[in-house]
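Protocol step 4 of 6: record predicted structures for both targets in the notebook before any analysis. Target 1:
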Amino acid sequence: MPPRIRFEKICNSYALRTLKFKENHAIKKIYIEEINKDRDELAASSSSSSSPKNSTIKYLLQPKTQLLSLISRVQQLIQNWKIEKISLDWQNPWSPPISTSFSISRGSKEEAAQEHLKPIESLQEFLEWDLIDIYYTDGSKDNKSNAAAVCKIGERNRIKYATNWNLGPYMEIINAELYTVYRALKHLKQQRLEDKQVYIFIDS
């Protein structure tokens, strides 16, 4: 990719990133202050003259710093709203990374189903106090379509959340299984949980 295009891409990416800044972010405070200052100057020039010159308006609306030039790119990028979804969730940069572990049964599907009942039983007290989350995911395929489902359980197998999707006839079964895990993680993220253990049981 040519350097000029790479540079444009970096600048546009930073402009979009500013949409995620919180109100008290130092950079956001600076550019809001500058924009308000220009707005006040434009209002003052309008009040002093019934018809301000076009050159004056053009000067006041022109970004005067490199930062404002970057921010002004957002106007060009969001005309058709063809941008990625912006998450407004605050993520502490000092937060520790998520720790994960995987366990795969070496037995048959029936043996694995029995094996997983033991840890479920031992976790009942934690479920009662809502200290952990347990999800089950499943994907299935027949001659006509694919289906996917996610279920979150509480104490004594009480269903706390359950949903399913018709994925159409063209998706492979492995993709259906992966999609259910993705949706379970997405639902988990929406809960905004901190320091909570999560178990996801997949039968594939």
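Target 2:
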Amino acid sequence: MIKGYNTLNLQTAVGKSTTSCFIESPVVSQVCRFMSDTNVRGFVHLIEDTKTFGQKGFRKRLVVLEQNLGKFTNFIPLDFLGDTCDRADELKVGDEIEAVYRLSGRKWQRDPQSETKYFLSAEAMSFKVLSGAESTAASNKFDDPNEAFSEAASDDSSDPPF
């Protein structure tokens, strides 16, 4: 801890990572807003194609991570923007990854009389592959017990399947 500062630990519910902000009490929001990068871990569920927008060629690619949290499955959309779109080519569905992301929010209003809408997105800054899709597929080969029986039944040998 830095002398004269308090430490504030922030924990994200999704990524279960902790970010420490060294703050001087009157300026809590100003210091912490610059430390908004955090991590999330999950399995790649979906990789969309890169989309290009506008005359300047703004590029965006969506990658969705899946987390099985016991009672429910959590799907986390990550936006890869600009040059990071090409880095997502390294990913395959089923890969377990840890991604560093930054939250960004936007305000949108068509005209002064219309309703104001707010949008939140998670922009992927970097990632590392923790385990590949091949090893995950092999370990999950017989998640459905009936699939194991059907494979054994299709075996042409005369040996019993047990």
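Step 5 preliminary note on target 2. Residues 36-153 form a domain with the OB fold (Dihydrolipoamide Acetyltransferase, E2P) fold (CATH 2.40.50.140). Confidence is low (pLDDT under 50) at residues 1-35, 135-145.
Proceed to step 6 after PI sign-off.
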